[in-house]
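I am writing to request your help with a piece of structural work I have in hand. Here, with my thanks, is the record as I have it:
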Amino acid sequence: MNKFTRNVAAALLAVPLLSGSAFAETPPGVLVVAQNIDDIVAIDPAQAYEFTSSEIMANVYDRLIQYEAEDTTALVGGLAESWEIDAANKTITFTLRDGVSFHSGNPVRAEDVVFSFSRVVTLAKNPAFILTQLGWTPENMGEMVSADGNTITIRYTGDYSPNFVLNVLASRPASIVDRELAMANEVDGDLGNAWLNQNTAGSGAFILDTYRPSELLRFSANEDYYRGAPLMDSIIVRHVAEAATQQLLLQQGDVDIARNMTPEQIASLPDDGFDVGTYKQATVHFISYNLKVPELDNPALWEASRYLIDYDGLADTLLLGQMEKHQAFWPAGFPGALEETPFSYDPERAKQILEDAQVELPITVELDVFNFAPFTDVAQSIQASFADAGINFEINPGTTAGIITKYRAREHEAIMLYWGPDFNDPHSNAKAFAYNADNSDEAYISTTTWRNAWAVPEEMNQRTMAALTESDPEARNQMYLDLQRDVQQTAPFFIMFQGILQIGMADNVEGYVHGASSDLVFYRLVEKS
C-alpha cells in the first residue's frame, strides 16, 4: 500500500462516515463497505457461527479444499494441492502445497491441520457438529487425523459419499489455524480461543488488522497469497445499522458498497454512478402444517394448498428484490438444486382437489409468522387467497425467538419460516426436509420433518441416506433432484421462495463476489476503475 493510500485509509478510520464527510470519494486502493456487522459473536473458526463471521473466515482463512471466488460452485484445492480417497471410502490423504505461509510468517504445516481440526472438536463450540458428523471425538482425534511430512491422513466413520466428506472439510470450522500463534496466546487451556475471538491466525487473501465490535473491520491485502495478491490494498467494513444512512453514504461517495439497503432504496438509486448487484441466497421460505393437528393431517389439504399461493404475484410486488419463486428444498446456486416450479396460483384447481377428497370445510388454522416485513405482508396475502377455498388462517405474529421456540416444541398449527443449510452439501437440507426416522415426541431432531410431525415414508428415508453415501457425483446430484421432486408433491409443507440480496455499489467497483451463502463472500478479485 503506498503512503498516500495508507494515510487516507487511516483518516477514514478516524473520521465518522456521516453527511458532510471531508471525503467526496474513497481512495483508489481502499474498498469501503457500509454493513450491519452487529451479529458477530465470535471470529474464532472453532466458534464463529454468524453471517458476518462467516465472511471473515472466507477472506482471512484457508481450508484444505474450498469454494473459491473464481467459481463459487466448484470445490477446488485450497491448502491441499491434491488428495486421494481410498477404495473403501474411509480415508482421504491430502498433500499440502509447498511454500504457503500464515500471516505471521510461520509455514503452513500438516501439524497445523491436525491441530485446527482437533481444537474444533475439543472446544465443542457451536459449529463443531459439522466436523463431528465424521465420527470424530476428542478421544479419537489422534487416530482419525494424522500428519506425516507434508501429508495429512483423514479417517471417518459412516458410509458417506466422498463429496459429502469433502464438503464438510470445506466448511467454516475446517479453517486452518496457525498452531504456533494460537498456542502462544493460550490462556487456561482454551487453545487460544479468547485471543482468536479478537485476532486472526490465518493464511488467507486478507489479514484482519482491526476488529472493533459493532464498529469496524479493517483488512489488508496478503501480498504473498499463493493464488496471487488481492487487487485492493485494504478493505474497510464500517458498521452502519441504518439502511437510510447506508444509502446516504453511498450516494455521497463515502462508501463504495452498501450491503443492507431496502429494495425501495435500491430502486431509488440514480442510474448515473451506481450499480446494483443481485445475488441469490441460500435461504428457502416455506409454510408448513403440523400433523399433530388432526384437521391438517390430510394429503389432499397439502396438495390443494400448493395452488392457493400467488407465487408470481408476491415475487413481483411485495417481495420484489427480496425473494424469487423457488419450490425445492435445495437452493439454486448449488450443485444438485432443482429449479423446476410446477405450482402456480390456481384456486379453482385447489377447490376441486378439496371437493374430490371430501375435505370438511371451512377449517380455521393458526398461522405463526415473524412480526416484521415482508413476512406479515405475505401472510396477509396468503390469508386472503386461502380463505377463498375455505381455509381460514388466523395470523399470529410473534418474535423470532418465540416462534422458533414454539416450532421446536411442535406446538404450532401452521407456520411460515425460512431455512438455510449449515454447510454447502445437499444433505444438509435433505435431512431437514426428506428424513425422519423417529417421529415420536421424545426423539427431538432439528429438522422441519420432525418439527411438523411428518412421519416420512421409510422409502424416502432410505433414499435420503442412499444419496448421502453415493460416490458418483452426477448420480448423487440426480438422487437429490428426485428427492426434491417427491418432497414438492407429497410433503405437508410448501416451499415458495428463495431469498435474494440486492447490494448497492459505486459503478467503478468490479469483481465483488457474493455467492449463495455468507461462506461465499470474497473480496480478493475486487478492483476499482
